[in-house]
Write a structure and sequence with these properties.
This protein has 148 residues and is mainly α. The radius of gyration is 16 Å and the shape is elongated. It starts with a helix and ends with a helix. The protein contains seven helices and no strands. The protein has one domain.
Length: 148
Amino acid sequence: MSLWEWTLEVYARPGVPEATLTLQDRHGQNTSYLLWAIWAEGPPAEALLTAAAAAKAWDARVLKPIREVRRALKPAFPPVDDGAREGLREDVKAAELRAERVLMETLETMASASSGGRPALESLRAAASAWGGAVDDEALARLARALV
């Protein structure tokens, strides 16, 4: 199963969206990168670092700017018509989703599925460490539990 197909399947599980958004918004992690690390069952350290660098660059130059625009379009923006604003927001949301898919397709080429054989929490810890920054272990554990 491709990374994208797997992601759509697991993201529909209860608790997964909330857990990934917490890791993204509160801990500065990249959802696509973390899910890739789980899908690949803990890629080797070198692959994690290479993937983190690629994801950070894509995140900074593409995903974050699109996300900021989408979030800026959420509240009313007088005198812009609400219907027009919301339509544009949906277009931007679709672009953000496509950008995430492009990143995941890129990451998928960096490690095949089942490359490491590690459990989800161990994979998340290794990926978060390679990404950098402090991450609450309970936030990682919450995502790992939601994926079961």
